TrEMBL record:
Residues 1-184 form the Malic enzyme NAD-binding domain. This is Malic enzyme NAD-binding domain-containing protein. Keywords: Oxidoreductase. One of its GO terms (molecular function) is NAD binding. Pfam families: Malic_M.
Length: 228
């Protein structure tokens, strides 16, 4: 954490932020970040925080120009930028690339490397339900994240493909299986199944759901996606 700098709507987070210290009872998490990150107490805003940075992860207000190209140019060589605001990312992907970023991810499906929770939460719930888990642990979610990475590696990672897409439905099966297995390992599952049993169950349910959705769309009961 000491190598990270967080920025809120006002400025960078650090222990000299008297406004956050005064409100630490209301927002203890932000004050905790002030204490654990940015030990050099770098002040300013996004532009100052990006100087020399290897990675930018932005979950901010919709852009463009929330992050400016001239700020991105000050980042380290071959930098990575996750610009995840919707409907418009904080900076357009091509502008980030022109400014020197090597790998760009956004929250949109019409750009490469979509980062969206929809690639994870359906499978996490599927795996949880399949073993009748009492809760969803952090470790179950982390297992899903690692499996996502493995799926991308199996297909071949490139600058424009660092994460599977939501159209790759077999990914959800793999995620569901590792989530279920982790729940069993941690003792929170009410039903203990083998990896093969979990795979067959998840595949059957997900396949049937996809086929039903396709049928409903073809019959017009689910309207088509509106054109822009």
């Amino acid at each position: 954490p000491e190598n990270t700098i967080f920025v809120d709507s006002k400025a960078t987070l650090h222990t000299d932020r008297a406004d956050l210290e005064a409100k630490q009872s209301e927002n203890p998490y932000k004050w905790e970040l002030c204490q654990k990150t940015n030990p050099e107490k770098r002040t300013g805003g996004i532009g100052e925080a990006l100087k020399g940075a290897d990675v930018c992860i932005s979950l901010s207000k919709s852009g463009p120009d929330t992050i400016k190209p001239e700020w991105v140019k000050t980042m380290a060589k071959d930098a990575i930028a996750f610009i995840c605001a919707n409907p418009i990312p904080e900076i357009w992907p091509w502008e980030a690339k022109e400014a020197g970023v090597r790998i760009v991810a956004t929250g949109r499906s019409d750009f490469p490397n979509q980062v969206n929770n929809s690639i994870s939460f359906p499978a996490i719930f599927r795996g949880t339900l399949d073993v009748k888990a009492r809760t969803i642990t952090d470790e179950m979610c982390i297992a899903a994240a690692y499996e996502l990475a493995k799926c991308a590696e199996d297909r071949g990672i490139s600058e424009d493909y660092i994460i599977p897409t939501m159209g790759e439905w077999e990914v959800f099966i793999r995620e569901a299986v590792v989530v279920g297995m982790k729940a069993i390992e941690q003792g929170v599952a009410r039903e203990k199944l083998s990896r093969d049993q979990l795979t067959k169950r998840a595949e059957k349910i997900i396949k049937e759901a996809r086929e039903a959705t396709t049928l409903l769309m073809k019959s017009g009961l689910i309207p088509p996606v509106p054109e822009e």
